[in-house]
Amino acid sequence: MKKSLYFIVFLILIIGIQNVYAASNPYKPSGPYGTNCTWYAWKMASEKAGVTLPGWGNAKEWYSDASNDGYSVGTTPEANSIVVWGNWTSYGHVGYVEKVEGNIMYVWDSTGPCIDEEDPKYINCIANGVSEETDKVCRANAKRIACKYTISPSDYEITGYIYLDNAPKKPTSSSSTSTPATTKKEETKAEVKKSNNANLSDIELSVGTIIFDKEVFEYALEVENEVEQITINATTEHKKATIKGIGNYELNVGSNELKLVVTAEDGTTKEYVVKVTRKEKIEEQPEIEKSSNQVEQTIVKKGNEKIIILTVGAGVIILIGLCLIFKFRKRKNRGNYN
What we know:
Layout: H1 2-23, E1 30-31, E2 34-35, H2 37-49, H3 62-68, E3 72-74, E4 81-85, E5 93-101, E6 104-108, E7 114-115, H4 120-127, H5 132-141, E8 144-145, E9 147-150, E10 158-163, H6 181-193, E11 200-205, E12 218-223, E13 229-236, E14 242-244, E15 247-250, E16 254-263, E17 269-278, H7 287-337
Parallel strand pairs: 12-17
Antiparallel strand pairs: 1-2, 3-10, 4-5, 4-10, 5-6, 6-9, 7-8, 11-13, 13-15, 14-16, 16-17
């Protein structure tokens, strides 16, 4: 009886230990670059999304490990997801995406969080500060918020996003030798749902307009020489499609090609091209040169008029002379007849 009781207590302890391990952060708080980004992202996913992530490898391996464990992944930023940067460091980098607004995502990660500089308490603290030391105290006690990151283009090459909505209920480990049947079903289901929609729904330009049609892949636009740069933005039909090429472009005189490459969830790509022609600069003639030319033209014109008058006058004189000679000869001839 005692042996049975000990065995039951042992089982309860083992189960309790396993549950504590499953619910605890499997990563070390600090790493070679300071606060460990995997530890911090795991912590934020648990606190803000209520999702207990498995113990995956280095940050750059999270995307593939999550996919293998049945998590929905993609390249479109969404709130309540984990962003994976493959080339941030040799280990990669991860952070928790709290929300997305346009081309900006708000991320909680180990390099931050950021200070809420619009918080009235922080503003008042800085305003009443008397030195750099007091400002440091203000910053240390300031309210923390998610940091703003530009979605595209990215200096560290975003690998993709791990979506935490509808995450698998039971965390699994991608390093395990076998994959649960439920995970395999979820993977198959996720693969079937991948979209091949690589269409844009609109293209916006900071200068000029184009008539957009998702089936038209090349557009032409002409701008004045004074337009030195242009911003191009676009949106996709499918929320999990991604776009490369959005941003600001310096315009050269002549033809400029703005390319937008759209990649669908399943990897299908389409390319939209906007050819922008910047006009040549029209050189204006200096006022002094204009006046000089006008004087020359006036002199030439007046000179031409004098030549014409002299020519006409000479012609008239010659004609009168010929008439007089003819008349004189005629009279002379009559005298001879008499």
